[in-house]
Automatic annotation (TrEMBL):
Coiled coil: none
SUPFAM superfamilies listed in its UniProt record: Duplicated hybrid motif
CDD domains linked: M23_peptidase
GO molecular function, one term: metalloendopeptidase activity
Source species of the chain: Halalkalibaculum roseum
Protein name: M23 family metallopeptidase
């Protein structure tokens, strides 16, 4: 089949399987200092997290208020409002209330234990229509008015723990803003503290301490609020980043800093300050931070330059967006970190800039191969950039690569090498074919942010399809598919160390045996936690189709085991509500909580799911335990494996 006919075939399949959805958002001006807010809990005026901190896939859009590891503190309406929205779910915000204020702005209160009685009745009336656990309802038409200071809920740990209150303020067009921009304050006399420096290569010729990889260095404290990163040798363009945190009085939590400045030879070249952002921008946390470090170590190094694709409103820069391509010689760098209350710390760095080394070699052959044999192609630890890839020395052995093009001219490409490995320049007009054996190979194809692209597998007819604006910047992407047997396939979408803006389409060819196996599913492998996470799929023609939100490793695996239920027990929550807990475990695909049912003594309740505690909860507002409680529970996992159990649970009632 020709390249053009294969491409048309991919396009046809893609159009059948996937629609395209577009949306936009307008912005309205809003000033947060036009109203008076009250502190929204009686747990105390202390924070566990600040606005704009690093989260798993976004910026933190609120203040997290400390509840000292306990549940049941009162939550107050910070201003007069109407009840706008109620939501309940197993993850994210958990049980959450949205209030709309008279100026059109909003306040949000999340991870709650329960709502105030009348609000709880509203939520229950919605859920018990069909015994749904999960709801997200706009109730503004009910015109339920709330006064400033009214108790609206009790604090909890729903969605994601430990116990705390997520307190969020939004403009009328739902842009979150820092609550400390209002009259709300905390006691803070402690300056930020620097921990580490990062230096990123921004070109194939760049080197930091002799390597083309990201370099990190611990700080040295000089006394007081002064720090030093010493001297770093560099050549070529680079970008700096810092791991820095803040603290407040009387607590030990580490917070994000509010403001960062970088001076080069006493000239201000970068300034960031986090006051507000839109939800359309929140995943740009990935490019505000040094993503490869965030992905590998969960450390939120903040870049001191604006990476390509970053449109956040935080920055002021001079010249080259904070990127450093300095003249040879020694340069003085000063980095200043401020918290919201003006406490400040300073770190210094000397950059010794050397001439770019002459290490390149040109090859005009169609392929290059090492002298060693290998049967395993391992590109997990390769570092990919816009127009080059850095291959560690250990992965070069047995590797063959070649440019693929539609003309007969093989072209020239450039290799750089030293003791740290090899750098291969990527050609935007050609795919690069990587191979270690006849059955283990893939191509890397350059994908640009503003164009639709398809990256095919070289071992079968599987492919990945990327809509415009999937990536922040131009990137070479590869798809490797390796089938071990009919119920076990490895799928890798390279590179692992790059973020994406939105999900992409992954269409994996399945054979006739796999087509008839209804228990096959797709799982994302999280290397850092050594965990498999289920991904929803559809079978379309002879493809298993998914929309992952990340690049990385995936497995097609079979799940034939039903969930396990154990240890039923009756508990009385801190608010006085009686509940029944059941521990639940599933070996692979996870609980399909929307299909769970739970009844006690013939009364059907709501089966609430608490994944962090591996717990299924029987909730009914009128439940009180009897001397003998007959439980009937039915649960399914995501592959449809079913468990049905009955229990007789005695309870000694008060006489």
């Amino acid at each position: 089949m020709s390249v053009s006919s294969t491409y048309r075939s991919f396009l046809f399949i893609l159009c059948v399987i996937f629609p395209v959805t577009l949306f936009g958002q307008d912005s309205q001006p809003f000033s947060p200092d036009g109203a008076t807010y009250i502190w929204p809990t009686n747990a105390g005026e202390y924070l566990t997290s600040t606005f704009g901190e690093t989260r798993s896939a976004h910026f933190h859009s609120a203040l997290d208020l400390k509840t000292w590891g306990k549940k049941g503190y009162e939550i107050y309406a910070t201003r007069d409002a109407v009840l706008h929205r109620i939501a309940i779910g197993p993850t994210g915000y958990g049980k959450v209330l949205y209030l709309k204020h008279d100026d059109g702005s909003y306040s949000v209160y999340a991870h709650l234990l329960r709502f105030e009685e009348k609000i709880q009745q509203i939520a229950d009336s919605i859920r018990f229509r069909d015994h749904r656990f999960e709801i997200d309802e706009n109730v503004e038409d009910m015109n339920y008015r709330i006064k400033q200071g009214d108790v609206i809920a009790l604090s909890g740990a729903s969605g994601i723990g430990p116990p705390h209150l997520h307190f969020e303020l939004r403009t009328p067009d739902h842009r979150p803003f820092n609550p400390l921009l209002t009259n709300l304050k905390v006691e803070d006399t402690i300056p930020p503290e620097f921990s580490n420096l990062s230096v990123e290569p921004l070109s194939m010729e760049s080197e930091i301490e002799g390597s083309n990889r990201i370099f990190t260095k611990r700080v040295r404290k000089n006394g007081g609020n002064m720090y030093s990163f010493g001297t770093v040798d560099v050549s070529g363009p680079i970008g700096l980043g810092v791991d820095v945190f803040d603290q407040a009085d009387d607590v030990y939590n580490a917070y994000a800093v509010y403001e960062l400045k970088m001076f080069v030879d006493d000239e201000l070249v970068f300034h960031s300050k986090v006051d507000s952002f839109s939800y359309a921008e929140t995943n740009q946390m990935f490019v505000d931070r040094v993503y490869p470090i965030l992905n590998d170590k969960r450390a939120g190094y903040q870049r001191l330059y604006i990476a390509d694709g970053n449109t956040l409103p935080f920055y002021k820069t001079s010249g080259n967006k904070g990127k450093l391509d300095l003249a040879e010689g020694t340069h003085s760098i000063r980095i200043i970190a401020d918290d919201y209350f003006g406490n400040s710390s300073e770190a210094t760095l000397r950059l010794r800039v050397n001439p770019v080394g002459e290490q390149s070699r040109d090859f005009s052959t169609t392929a290059v191969s090492s002298k060693f044999d290998s049967t395993e192609l391992n590109a997990e630890n390769w570092t990919w950039f816009e127009n080059w890839v850095n291959i560690p020395d250990n992965d070069i052995q047995g590797l063959t690569f070649a440019e693929l093009s539609i003309d007969e001219d093989p072209g020239n490409y450039t290799l750089y090498g030293n003791r740290h490995g090899m750098r291969l320049k990527l050609n935007p007009a050609r795919d690069i074919f990587f191979r270690t054996s006849a059955v283990d190979h893939f191509i890397a194809r350059q994908v640009t942010p503003h164009h639709f692209s398809i990256v095919p597998s070289t071992t079968d007819k599987s492919f990945a399809a990327f809509q415009p604006e999937t990536f922040y910047d131009t990137l070479s992407v590869g798809l490797r598919v390796k089938k071990f047997r009919s119920d076990s396939t490895l799928v890798q979408v390279y590179p692992f160390n790059h973020p994406i803006k939105q999900g992409y389409k992954l269409a994996l060819e399945i054979d006739s045996v796999q087509m008839t196996n209804t228990k096959l599913g797709l799982y994302k492998y999280e290397r850092r936690r050594e965990k498999l996470s289920y991904i929803n799929t559809k079978i379309q023609q002879n493809y298993m189709v998914a929309q992952p939100e990340e690049l990385g490793s995936f497995y097609i695996l079979e799940d034939n085991e039903s969930p396990e239920l154990m240890n039923p027990r009756i508990i009385k929550r801190v608010d006085g509500q009686w509940l029944i807990y059941l521990t639940i475990r599933d070996n692979l695909s996870g609980l399909d909580y929307n299909r769970s049912t739970f009844s006690v003594n013939g009364t059907k309740g709501i089966a609430e799911y608490e994944p962090e505690d591996n717990r299924l909860v029987y909730y009914h507002p009128e439940f009180e335990p009897s001397d003998e409680n007959n439980l009937k529970v039915t649960v399914y996992d995501m592959e449809g494996n079913k468990t049905e159990k009955s229990y007789s649970l005695p309870f000694e009632t008060e006489k």
